[in-house]
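Troubleshooting: if your tokenizer reports a length mismatch, compare your output against this known-good record of 382 residues.
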Amino acid sequence: MIFEPSPEDRLAVDGLRRMIERELAPIATRHRDEVFPKQVAHELLGLLSRHGIGGGWVPEEGGGLGLGFVSSGLLYEELSRVSPDAAGLAYVHEGAAMKLHRGGSPGLRQRYLPGLVSGQLIGCSAVTEPGGGSNVRNMKTRAQRSGNGFVVNGEKTFISNAPIADVIMLTARTGEQDFSVFLVDPREHRIETREIAKLGLRSWSLGQVFFNDTWIADDYLIGGVGEGLRETMKGFERARIFVAILALGIAQAALDESLRYAREREQFGRPIGAHQLVQAMLADMATELHAARLLVYRGLALLDKGQRCNLEAAMAKIYATEAALRIASKAIQIHGAYGLTTEFPVERHFRNARMLTMPDGTTQINQLVIGRELLGIGAFGG
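Known-good structure output:
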């Protein structure tokens, strides 16, 4: 199993790289460590949409490019190397577009999908709650039947893109064991959002969403009543792998900076890269990155085949995110005291890497997923 990019994939990545260097990187640099304003997020998604990011998963009949997940992963990894914040913004947005394409009514798709695919609208998915975390079945947000619609009450938290989103794909409880997905339009539905300040990935918006007697008409239901849990759980496989892709990009950037510094920085009359212990750290970093990449692209290949890959997705997510954290830590070590300063980017790579062991299942939750897949015995319900 050799995951070798096709000539078409290489051309696509090269084209994306040139655009990033010419147009996207300057924007990302201007907003480093501050949340992308909504207008800037739209601009970024508009640039990326031309290269199959943000709407590439959507089939051509839905206005997208119908990219395979391996091809898409290569693009996201290249973007993550320069701006994991922009990559995160786009992959969460793209997941919302896919939910709409798969389960939305013709009217909803016609109204919202073209804007999502083009980046004129920003999408997100709202699942996590303050007391629930990875326990989706413990969801407290309720949508109760009211006439030809539902009244929603509850709170979602740690929702990527939420404060700047134009379309929110909400998962809410519609019965004791029933969960449903609704399209929420902040321009039409009464909600409140709040930004959450965080350690890393500070340009990528993260927030809370509050629903207080929010009425949503039946027309905004995605799929049927009670179909939300299956759709939500299916999305976790893809989400875990794409979080792992962000980790690959961060790790590659940290390794690149370390190699550059090891060649340029002199100590004891020679480049520090000539010292054996520095070479040992670089060797470990490169080996872990290559191993993580193989796990991630194995998961993407299974997604392309339409196969369930809970095991492989959890393994990729654990290994790639934890490896990125170790690689970024070694990058700081190689830079010495300079690595602790904001003058060099490796401290930011470390903060960004630290963020990724949490979303879409912490390392420990994903270990339980792997254990369940291996043993057939669940350590938790669901």
